[in-house]
């Protein structure tokens, strides 16, 4: 008995259906007629097996330009900037200046965000200025998104 069926009793109806064939004889004959004359060995199966083997060895990977959702390397300017070392240094300087403490509620540590006082989008010249940043916990930072939080 399979572990997934352990503890369950099968009814007579289940036992009857278990012995039935999934396809009718007519359907099975129809499928057989359709497959006659075809090359069953099929180069597709051999090729697919070779490709699977190359995946296992790590020779083929679907990432980068080979990924299904690849869009030509397009990346928003803001995303690219946030991945730079300069931006990461700015963030760390803001955290160190504020002693890793949320400036709104006073909680120290946890999930912190370096929030821009002047808008990141509207003031590109102030993006990496330490005085334009403030440390906020995740909860207080979420309040800034709705406009409810005053800097």
Characterization of the model:
The protein is mainly α. It is 40% helix and 7% strand. It has a two-stranded antiparallel ribbon with strand order 1-2. The longest helix has 15 residues.
Identify low-pLDDT runs: none
The profile of the biggest β sheet is: 2 strands, antiparallel
Strand order of the largest sheet: 1-2
Percentage of residues in DSSP E strands:
5-15%
Task: Specify the helix fraction band.
Answer: 40-55%
Elements, N to C (H/E): HHHHHEEH
How many beta-strand runs?
Answer: 2
- State the separation between the terminal residues, measured CA to CA: 65 Å
Over all CA atoms, what is the radius of gyration?
A: 31 Å
Number of helices: 6
Shape: elongated
Class computed from helices, strands and strand pairing: mainly alpha
Return the average pLDDT rounded to an integer.
81
Describe the structure concisely for a colleague.
With 151 residues, the chain is mainly α. It has a domain at 77-145. It is built from six helices and two strands.
Key features?
single chain, 151 residues, mainly alpha, two-stranded antiparallel ribbon, 6 helices
Furnish the topology, listing elements before pairings.
Layout: H1 12-19, H2 25-35, H3 43-57, H4 77-82, H5 85-97, E1 112-116, E2 133-137, H6 138-145
């Amino acid at each position: 008995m399979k572990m997934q069926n352990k503890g369950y009793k099968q009814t007579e109806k289940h036992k009857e259906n278990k012995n039935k064939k999934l396809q009718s004889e007519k359907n099975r004959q129809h499928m057989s007629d359709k497959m006659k004359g075809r090359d069953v060995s099929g180069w597709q199966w051999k090729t697919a097996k070779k490709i699977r083997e190359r995946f296992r060895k790590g020779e083929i990977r679907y990432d980068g330009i080979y990924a299904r959702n690849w869009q030509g390397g397009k990346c928003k300017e803001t995303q690219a900037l946030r991945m730079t070392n300069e931006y990461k240094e700015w963030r760390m300087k803001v955290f160190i200046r504020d002693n890793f403490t949320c400036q709104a509620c006073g909680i120290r540590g946890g999930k912190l965000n370096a929030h821009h006082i002047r808008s990141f989008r509207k003031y590109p010249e102030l993006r990496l200025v330490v005085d334009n940043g403030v440390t906020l916990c995740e909860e207080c930072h979420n309040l800034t998104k709705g406009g409810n939080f005053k800097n």
